[in-house]
Write a structure and sequence with these properties.
This protein has 5 helices and no strands.
């Protein structure tokens, strides 16, 4: 998921610092180091942050999980 978080952030032109500031403005208590750990896959993202990111990026939740399900039917 971390790669998808980074890809979306870069596509929308946000630095980690500015994105975290916007998330804080929206009520998410998150610092840049924590967000960096989300992108590196070292920490699981909180659903409250994911909800706000979806609003910021105007994307679907599927965009966050793209390519993660490696199973075939």
């Amino acid at each position: 998921m971390g790669e998808n978080l980074k890809k979306l952030r870069l596509i929308h032109g946000w630095s980690q610092e500015k994105l975290c500031a916007e998330l804080q403005r929206r009520g998410c208590d998150i610092g840049r180091t924590t967000y960096e750990k989300y992108e590196q896959g070292q920490l699981n993202i909180r659903i409250s942050v994911l909800i706000e990111l979806r609003k910021i990026y105007k994307c679907t939740y599927d965009d966050f999980f793209e390519g993660l399900d490696k199973t075939t039917e």
